[in-house]
Each structure stands twice: as C-alpha cells, then as structure tokens.
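All the exercises in this workshop are built on plain-text protein records. Sequence and backbone structure share a record, each on its own labelled line. The structure tokens are whole numbers drawn from a learned vocabulary of backbone shapes. The record below serves as our worked example for the rest of this section.
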Amino acid sequence: MAETNKNIETKQKNTNFVQTVFKLLWEYLMLAVGAAIAAFAIEEFLVPCTILDGGVVGISIMVNNLTNIRLSLLTVLFNIPFLIVGYRVLGREFLIKAGFSMMAFSSFLEVFAPLVNMTEDSLLAVCFGGIILGIGVGIVIHFGGCLDGTETVAILLNRKFNFPVGRTVLLFNVVIFSIAGRLFGFDRAMYSLLTYYITSKVLDLVENGMNQAKAAMIITNEGRDIADMIYKEMGRTVTILEGEGLISGKKVVLYCVLNRLEVYELKRLIKEADASAFITINDVSEIIGNHIKKKGE
C-alpha cells in the first residue's frame, strides 16, 4: 500500500514537472511572438515615417534618426538601467522575462529592418502601426514581460511617492514627443501622440487595462500567509476580511490594489501558497489614499 502511494506521488510530481515546463515554454514562446509583432510594427510602419513610439523605444528612434546607430542596439542599451530598477522593484522573474522580451524585440528589429516598408503614408502608418504595436506589447505584458523600461521607473515612483503609474508614463511620453516635435517637426510629434493613443487602446483590449490600477480580491484558506507574501515580495498592503461560502464555509477574503505589471506576480504568489484560491481582478478608475505601506511604518 505504501509502495502504491509512493508511485502515485512520484507520478503526480512528474506530471506537475511536465506541466510546469510546458507552461514556461508556452510563456516564453508568446513573449517572443509579442516581441516579433511589436518589432514588425516599429520597423515596417513607424520608423519609415519618422513616427515615434513612447518611452525607451521612442528615445531610441530619435537617436537612430540623428546618428544612424542601429535601433536594435539602442533599445537594448537604453533599457539596461531600467532593467536594473525593474529587478529591484519587481524581482528576479520580471528581470528574466523582461530581459528575454527586450532581447527578442531587438533581434526581430534586425530581422525586419532590411524588408520593404509597408507604407510611406503617415496616416496609414499611425493607424495600422498603432494597432499592430498594441497587439504585440499587449501579448508581452500579458505573459509577464516588458519591452519599455520606463514603466518600471513609474512603478518605483508610485511605490515611493504614490504617483499614478499611467500618469507618470504619459508625462514621460509627452516630454519625448515634445522633443521629437522640435527635432523632426510638430506634425511628427502629433502623429506620434496619435499612435501612442491607438496603441494604448488596443493594448487595453489585449492585456485588459493599460493605465488603470487593478483591485484583486482573493478568497482563500491561507489568508495570513498570502497577505505576508504580498507585503514582503511586492510591498503591497492587504485588507483582510472574514467571509463565509454557502458551501465551503468560513473563508478569508483579501483585498489589495496593484498595477497591471504586478498582476502576473500576484497570481504566481497565490498559486504557490494556495492553488485552490479564488481570485477576481478588476479595474480601478480612481484611488484616494495611500495603498502602499513602507516597511518600518
């Protein structure tokens, strides 16, 4: 009997291992697919018409136009400081996935650079480039990666000073587009701003929320452990409530507010602590008050 139980346990472990490996392979495949789609939009629609994306990619396009240094190299170099910040803010797994996404993005920029441009019409480039770019970036973010390191700085400012992430990113991009207007003409800046708007809306559909905060409600039997993990690893405070299921009986209900780049990490932590936990994640249109507690307070 003991031997039978041991065999069953071994088979279960092997099954779990295979599922974990398959899940990781699928995630990294989709990160590569998203990076390829985003790189295609940049090289085949935006760059030929001198239309900028936001953040690091936008800065890279400007420098590429002024110096002819390869865009693929610039995106990697400019993202390195943000990766370091991202590691401190979001942890090792984010660093690995973001680094992989950025390297894949850079590689696909090299692949698509020699190809014939899809269009030289600025309006077509804005519309189709913005849509395709939003799809690519949305896929990358959905699977826990990141192509633009400026958002990690926005998250850091959010945690330290409670500045809204979306508003901070928008401020970065307004500065970038203003500089682009001075360098390449204000029509390029307006096209770029329109592209950013289209991209963000498409990303909304793919990733379910770009600039909005997220509210997570977790129903679990391991409430205290999960709350401690969220606070320790993500720096987010959690409200602990008592609940009772109609069938399942007494439960602990956790409520916390986070940003969209942290949703993947939250789900990973909860799965490790309680695979049977029930989670709902909703958009938050406005936050009043401080939902991040600094250690030592």
